[in-house]
Amino acid sequence: MIPESHFEAFSAHMDSSLLDQIKEATQEDPSLDTVLLAVSDPKSMPHSVAQKFKDYTIQKGLLLHQGRIVVPDEPEITRQLLSHFHDSPASGHQGRAQTLELISRYYYWPAMKFQVNCYVESCEICQRSKGHVHNYALNLLSVPAGPWDISYDFIVKFPKCKGYDSVLLVVDRFLKMMHLVPCKETATAEDVAQMFLEHVWKLHGTPKRTVSDRGTTFNSKFLKALYKSLQITPSFSTAYHPQSDGQTEIMNQWLEAYLRPFINRRQSDWVDWLPLAGFAHNNARSKATGKLPFEIVYGRSPVISPLLEPTGLPIADDRAKQLAETIQEVQASIKRAQERYKQADTGIPPPKFCTGDKVWLLASNITLQRPNNKLDHKHYGPVPVIERVGSHAYCLALPETMKIHDVFHVSLLSAFKQDTEFDCTFIPLPPVITAEGEEEYEVDKFVDWAAEDRIWKYRVRWKGYALHEDRWEPAKDLQHCKDKLRNFFANYPDVLAANNPIPANARKLKRGKMVKQLSKSKTACFVTLQALTLVATS
């Protein structure tokens, strides 16, 4: 189940109280006085002056510019809107252009583009979760002639969740619409055909053409026979080059980047996020087509908030004419996009860092103790630079607990972009000093659990501190956090699945294997899950 905390920003946008804040702040913003006067009483000023504000109207107490709500100069309101349209699951931590386009559908303020760029570039979650961008040339396929020219792929090796370990990814190469179906890596051809019928075919019918890799599933004789019976001509990718069809591999990376900020630490809820991931992608403007997949298919963007009135639906004749024009525009846009990809320049010089600069370290060669690297964070940090070593390496101030060499090549580093506009960056809180003179840190939440050296431990996230400051703490030191333990057990019911004692061989058990070992165990050790339940509920 998706935690409610992920929807706080979304709820803020849906809440009428935010619109009330905008109404109140609009009346108090001196920069809008002239606009309000021109709209409410245009005869009170010269006609030439009033004409400058002809795009403004007032509806239900809200000032609108070309039908969009005008946001007054109030930083907290702006921050809430940016948080919703970038951070929420329905938005999915999209890039600058997609975030700007999404928020521009409903709201307007003069410095919107600048502030959106600042917010997105300094988003710590994006910097941590998204991989390096390489401008390598792609072996691009021909431009599709029209809608429902599709590509298939499997994203495999996900951690087990609700019996699934893979995702069937179906993308319309023309519309850029995505469908995500949880599945098993061992799925047979019959299974895949059934999934396609249940989740894709029922919405769009039979595709004109398919592009798929030559994996064991798609290359089976059954699917070839199915394609033939449906008059589908497969166009397979070059052997051993999963990126040869370009688009599908990019979509794979997009999905993994979407999931990383939202899934829990044990990566046991990724299936729950697939519907939201599909919505976020299909509701974002495509760089290749310049349009929303939803917009091309349905003629309009979906309604996110019932408080914002949607535009009327086009009549049938206008819709048919609009669709024909859209198909021509999309074809031209895809051709232009492919030309841009071909001209991509890879000769970018490496960045330079100074002592004290904060950087992200590529986490590909670092074990961060999570079940699956595919859904793990792509960068570790931010960490300070100590000094430059030679011409292409830097020494970093890593925590002592990492126990790895602290000098890294510049290709593994990227600059940490500090937020200067909205002050959203993590600022560590000072520890509380007890009466005994000892330092105490406030627990924000528990994110994982394990048994090590016959000691039951929880991984603690400290309030006001970043993810890389998480620490394992023994259960005996956390008896004052009963409410947070209850929340943890509610999110991880498998911790108390069998109410069996911890096995005697629980020394250094790996995450994900604990429940299996518990179900097999018949011997008691040092503490029982039942005892932990009493701790959490007492």
**How many distinct domains?**
4
- Rg over C-alpha atoms, rounded to the nearest angstrom: 27 Å
What is the CATH superfamily of the largest domain?
Answer: Ribonuclease H-like superfamily/Ribonuclease H
Number of strands: 19
User: Biggest sheet: strands side by side, in what order?
Assistant: 7-6-5-8-9
Poorly predicted regions? 6-13, 134-138, 237-244, 310-316, 429-438, 497-538
Biggest sheet statistics: 5 strands, mixed
Structural class estimated from helices and strands = alpha+beta
Report the span from N to C terminus: 24 Å
The CATH topology name of the largest domain reads Nucleotidyltransferase, domain 5
Enumerate how many helices there are, as a single number.
Answer: 17
Q: Give the % helix.
A: 25-40%
Average pLDDT figure:
72
Percent of residues in beta strands? 15-25%
- What would the principal axes of the Cα set say about the shape? globular
CATH architecture of the largest domain: 2-Layer Sandwich
CATH class of the largest domain: Alpha Beta
Written account of the structure:
Helix 5 (75-87) packs across helix 6 (96-104). This protein has helices spanning 8-14, 16-28, 33-40, 47-51, 75-87, 96-104, 112-121, 124-129, 189-204, 221-229, 247-262, 270-282, 293-298, 316-342, 482-491, 514-520, 529-537; strands spanning 56-59, 62-65, 68-70, 107-108, 149-155, 166-172, 178-183, 209-212, 234-236, 358-362, 379-389, 393-396, 407-409, 413-415, 432-433, 439-440, 443-452, 455-462, 471-474. 34% of the residues lie in helices and 17% in strands. Strand 15 (432-433) and strand 16 (439-440) form a beta hairpin. It is built from 17 helices and 19 strands. The strands form 5 sheets. It has a 5-stranded mixed beta sheet, with helices on both faces. The protein has a 5-stranded antiparallel beta sheet with strand order 13-12-11-10-14. It has 4 domains: 4-128, no CATH class; 149-342, Ribonuclease H-like superfamily/Ribonuclease H (Nucleotidyltransferase, domain 5, 2-Layer Sandwich); 358-415, no CATH class; 432-537, OB fold (Dihydrolipoamide Acetyltransferase, E2P) (Beta Barrel), CATH 2.40.50.40. It has 538 residues and is an alpha+beta fold.
